[in-house]
Amino acid sequence: MQRRAQPHASPQPPAANPAGAEWRELVAAPDAAGVRLDRWLAQSLPEFSRSRLQALLAAGEVELDGETARDAGQKVKAGQRARLRIPAPVAAAPRAEAMHLAVVHEDDDLIVIDKPAGLVVHPAPGHEDGTLVNALIAHCGTSLSGIGGVRRPGIVHRLDKDTSGLLVVAKNDRAHQGLSTQFADHGRTGALERAYRALVWGAPRRAHGVIEASLDRSSRNREKMAVVPAGRGREAVTHYEVLESWPLGAPEPLASHVRCVLETGRTHQIRVHMAHIGHPLMGDRTYGPGFISKAQRLPEAARSALDALDRQALHAELLGFTHPVTGEHLHFRSEPPADFARMQMELARL
């Protein structure tokens, strides 16, 4: 019998003020000394995205020991006091765009989407419209949470543009805060579950393994992530399991089907970690360009399937979490889309 968690208590209303803004106050613990200001704020306030907090800093909405703080990179000192003014949520700036959404679950507080590959989650330079956020505004109206900022209403976590699969979006601030807490914890103490399916080049030596390697922006290309020495960047932990390798029984398989479970949720984490151990995702031009020549070893039908895939072979197949309002445990599973399934089928024929 499944045990249900108790619903979260209703959040306390913010202190009254004429502008409708909310104030937050924090005191830096000893272990926060030397940490970047924006990172400390993000760790202390998991319900807000780091980019949202950086925007508040740039807007002069953060005080540190009574002085306005705008430098996101300044180092925090133990005992310092931060005071943040959180403006009342405003209407989402992106315009509504009606488009098909594969809705897996929807209630008054949240919506779970099975995102197709190729769909950008939120507006960004170069992708001002045609995003999941545009579609959600059309579908949900004004009910999306404003905590993530005007560009990311309701967005609690993301999937890369070319990664398919399950994603949950908050429809009000209470749901957003509850979901953000769970995603910040990454399932270490709570019910959050996230699992992915990936097709990778080669086969890891061990059928099961844990990849622990910190990640940060690449110093050579700021659009890429990179593994950095311990003590730098952000902690990142990926658990993997090899489900199949092809050709079957080969001493050096050409490709493998891998299940990855996240213990942390960093940008491009699975893609970077699998490349780091020498097994980049098939179709990943960003982190696996050195393996493009391996495609020549594939039969014609498999090469055709890889060309048709035209993306990294990664699918978010499982998502489980505690409903932030009702306390019910929700669990969803998504089958890989046709392009992934075709690639897997052709590999199985090797």
Describe the structure in your own words.
There is one protein chain. This protein is α+β, with helices and mostly antiparallel strands and 350 residues long. The chain folds into 3 domains: 22-86, RNA-binding S4 domain (Structural Genomics Hypothetical 15.5 Kd Protein In mrcA-pckA Intergenic Region, Chain A, Roll); 103-172, Alpha-Beta Plaits, CATH 3.30.70; 195-318 and 331-348, Pseudouridine synthase, CATH 3.30.2350.10. Helices cover 19% and strands 25% of the residues. The chain is built from 7 helices and 15 strands. Strands 5, 6, 7, 8, 9, 12, 13, 14 and 15 form a 9-stranded mixed beta sheet that branches. The protein has a 4-stranded antiparallel beta sheet with strand order 1-4-2-3, with no helix packed on it. The protein is globular, with a radius of gyration of 21 Å. The relative contact order is 0.13. Mean pLDDT is 88; it is low at 1-19.
CATH class wording of the largest domain: Alpha Beta
Give the overall shape, derived from the CA principal axes.
Answer: globular
Report, as a whole number of angstroms, the end-to-end distance.
43 Å
Uncertain spans, ≥5 residues at pLDDT below 50?
Answer: 1-19
Please supply descriptive tags for the structure shown above.
Alpha-Beta Plaits; 350 residues; alpha+beta; nine-stranded mixed β-sheet; single chain; four-stranded antiparallel β-sheet; 15 strands; disordered N terminus; Structural Genomics Hypothetical 15.5 Kd Protein In mrcA-pckA Intergenic Region, Chain A; Pseudouridine synthase
